[in-house]
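Example (one chain per record):
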Amino acid sequence: MILVEADVSEEWDSSTDWAQLAEAAVRAAVAQSGVPGLLEGGPAAEVSVKFTSDEEVRSLNAAWRGKDKATNVLSFPMVEPELLATLVRTGEGEALLGDIVLAHGICAAEAADKGLGICTHAAHLVVHGTLHLLGYDHERGDEEAETMEETERRSLAALGIADPYEIHH
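Predicted structure:
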């Protein structure tokens, strides 16, 4: 069973239910991942999603990754990916999968550059971050990047969101 906790700072438009968006995006990513069993009964798994400022993301990026700049999304996995299948198989226990942090200004600017609504882009970033929590990595080679992108496509399609990697002419 997945529990999604959301923390939303004042930069994010209060007319959007960011907690609901986070829940839907996390669930879609898990459903399309290699461990969809985390959604059903079984172990209790928690994901924390923080919608915050560029400055806070810059600070976290500097402290944890040694990169003193803001980025669109950060993921902080708390469980080794190899243990996730064991959790699902046993159906017992609890796990904090990790934290996902989105930077408002960067997310909004990227959405505008792509001609997307901020909600659509934020959902993509939450899916992307969730996949990192589940052990997916696009920086370990082309094959893993393709696997991650394909899983993102399926996750976003389940949310009714178009392929973000499609080439437009």
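Caption: The chain has a mean pLDDT of 92.
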